[in-house]
Structure formats: C-alpha cells, structure tokens
Amino acid sequence: MRLPQLNTAPHRHHAESYVLVMFFLSAAALFIFLSLASEVREGEILAFDRWLLLALRNTADPAVPVGPSWLRAAMIELTALGGTSVLTLITVAATGYLLAARRASMAAFLVLTVAGGAAASTLLKQLFARSRPDVQHLVEVTSASFPSGHAMNSAVTFLTLGVMLARTQTSPAIRIYLICLAVILTMTIGLSRVYLGVHWPSDVIAGWCVGGAWAILCSLAARTLQQRRALEPPQGAGG
C-alpha cells in the first residue's frame, strides 16, 4: 500500500517568505545607512543632531545631561557593555558554549561573523572621519564619530549572537527571547552614547543599521548552511 506524501508546499512558502522579509529588512537598513552617510558628508543632518543632543543636556549647563545623578552613573556602566573588552569576552563565552555543545562549525561561523563586523566598523570610521559632538564627553573617546562603534559593534555582536544562538534552538519562545534580549541590549548601549555626549544621534542610528543588516545577513547565511548540513542543525531537529 502506497503511503500518502506529505504536502511540503506550506513549509516551503513560509521559508521563502521569511527569506524575502529578512532581505527586505537588511536592504532597508542599508538604505537608511547610505542616506545618513550622504547627509553626514554634506552636513545636512547636523542641525537635527545638535537639537536632539542638546535636548538631553541641562539648558543651564550643557555639560550636564538631564536626569538624576544615578541615571548618569547607570549610563556610564551600561555603555561599557558595548566596549571591545566586554564584547570580546561575551563572544568567547558564547563560542565556548557552542563548542561544549559540540557545535564546532557554528562556533567558527560565529567568530568569523563577529570579527568581520568589527573590522567593517573600524573601516567605516576611518572612511568618514567625522568629529565628535562639541559638548563635554562623560566617558573617554579617541576614535572618529561616524558610525558609532559601540552601537555598531554591539549590534554586530549581540544581534549576531542572538540570531546564531537562536538558530541552535527549535523552541519559538527561546528564539524570541534571545533575539529580543539582543535588541534591548543593542538599543540601550546606543542610547547611552548620545546621552553621554560622545556621539551624534545619526552616528548611533547608522551603527544600528549596519550592525542590524550584518546580523540579518548572517542569520540567512547560517540558515542556508544549516540546510546544506555545513552547519549543525537546530537542537531537536530531525536528520
């Protein structure tokens, strides 16, 4: 007796729709970045940047940000999460987890994507060489301003970690939690850079866009490689 074949068309349609949506989001993010880069080059966005930056400063003393002293201290501590040392430590820890879970290919892919994103951030900063905001900086900075290295590197690292670790899971709840946590961390770090006066708002938005696009493209690449068995499939997946 011949068994009926399962209809895989709905699953294929869902997968194709997911890929199209992700490509659209990454293209939109890159388009926003290119638009911001053009306006930064021409100086057209400076008025908006200055208005929003000063809106977060005390009108009587622009050297002091708005809000209580505890908020200032919290922002200084939170912004450190986007620093090179912390991001490297987190990447090493996540790589160790993947190795312990016997997912060596995924661990190698993770290291390459995070390292590649960090290199892209450095190159973009050198390319645009934008000056920092002309207000008192509440933390030490040495590099150029556009795009925000903390915003971009945290997006590259946390979002890439989020989507890569999510790709190891089959539970939708765990996937959503990991990605939402990565987004919240990325947004908080970026906002802290503007609050502390070390970046223009457009620097941070540009960093988010490039980092987000990078994470999305890495997610799609991981999905493709898992389908081709070049990367380990999600835990609990058949095959």
Sum this structure up briefly.
It contains eight helices and no strands. It is mainly α.
The rounded Rg comes to 20 Å
Average pLDDT over all residues? 83
What assembly state would you assign to the polypeptide chains in this entry? single chain
Class inferred from helices and paired strands? mainly alpha
Termini, distance in Å? 25 Å
* Low-pLDDT windows of residues: none
How would the global form be characterised? globular
Give the count of helical stretches: 8
Number of strands: 0
How much of the polypeptide forms β-strand, as a percent range? under 5%
SSE order: HHHHHHHH
What profile does the largest beta sheet have? Answer: none
What does this entry look like structurally?
Helix 5 runs antiparallel to helix 6 and helix 7 (172-195) packs antiparallel against helix 8. The chain has helices at 9-42, 46-55, 69-79, 84-100, 104-128, 149-166, 172-195, 201-227. With 239 residues, it is an all-alpha fold. The two termini are 25 Å apart. The model has no long low-confidence stretch (mean pLDDT 83).
Topology:
Elements: H1 9-42, H2 46-55, H3 69-79, H4 84-100, H5 104-128, H6 149-166, H7 172-195, H8 201-227
Helix pairs in contact: 1-8, 3-7, 4-5, 4-6, 5-6, 5-8, 6-7, 6-8, 7-8
Which terms summarize this structure?
239 residues; mainly alpha; 8 helices
